[in-house]
Design goal:
Order of helices and strands: EHEHEHEEHHEHEHEE
Distance between the termini: 26 Å
Number of strands: 9
Radius of gyration: 18 Å
Structural class: alpha/beta
Low-confidence stretches: 223-237
Strand content: 15-25%
CATH architecture: 3-Layer(aba) Sandwich
Helix content: 25-40%
Strand order of the largest sheet: 2-1-3-6-7
Mean pLDDT: 86
Number of domains: 1
């Protein structure tokens, strides 16, 4: 299986190279860079934290050199790769009787643009990413160990896959839900998560959840989620 894989953690790179020797694995430098935080003044998501450069122009040039080819696949980590920070303050889901409510960034007095403006490194980098993904003809997979990418679960209210998808679609509007692979459900072993994705794809079931509606009762939404196959080993939740 040929694909390009971008990640900021060397153990993930080494593991992927071992399991998929024909892949091209690119390490994204996680080192912090000097940032002019004046651009983010007034942004309600502004936090005191370091930023790296993430996936940038030199990596885009590598992709351009690798393309075109038949059925190209690009696999990206999220934290410190597509984003430039480690982690996301994702709105948790609230228990609501026997059901649960999916919170959004707007429920916390900020917009999706506020969040993306900061975690993606500013307007100039956002424009760079949008331009790259718009012109790049390849299948895009986001493979992340960020727990927020997991399907909504009554057992873990920090999972908020619908909101994570909004972040991705801010820069890749055509991104498909089935291509968001939650490595957290594979004990963080990304090669195993990707192998299962390539072999089995996603098992889909309808899981209802509710979103808040201004001046009205919560609205029922039916979403698809990835579920464990019975044939998987016990380590898979």
């Amino acid at each position: 299986m040929e694909f390009m894989f971008f990640d900021d953690m060397k153990p993930n790179i080494e593991d992927m190279e071992l399991v998929f020797p024909s892949s091209i694995c690119v390490h994204i430098d996680p080192s912090p860079v000097k940032i002019d935080f004046r651009e983010f003044e007034g942004n309600p998501y502004l936090k005191e934290m370091s930023m790296n450069r993430g996936f940038h122009e030199e990596h885009m040039a590598m992709v351009d050199a690798w393309l075109p080819r038949e059925n190209p696949i690009l696999v990206f980590d999220w934290d410190k790769t597509l984003s430039v920070v480690e982690g996301i303050d994702m709105p948790p889901c609230d228990p609501w009787g026997t059901r649960w409510l999916q919170n959004t960034f707007e429920d916390y007095n900020m917009t999706l643009e506020n969040v993306c403006h900061f975690i993606l490194g500013g307007y100039a980098r956002i424009a760079l990413l949008k331009s790259f993904f718009e012109r790049t003809k390849a299948k895009i997979i986001v493979l992340t160990n960020n727990p927020s990418a997991c399907p909504i679960s009554k057992e873990n209210t920090s999972y908020n896959r619908p909101e994570f998808l909004r972040l991705i679609r801010f820069i890749i509007p055509t991104f498909q839900e089935k291509d968001l692979v939650p490595g957290h459900l594979y004990d963080g072993i990304k090669s195993e998560a990707l192998k299962d994705y390539f072999i089995n794809g996603f098992t889909i079931q309808n899981i209802p959840y509710y979103v808040r509606v201004k001046n009205g009762p919560p609205l029922l939404i039916k979403k698809r989620r990835r579920t464990r196959r019975k044939t998987l080993r016990a380590r898979f939740f």
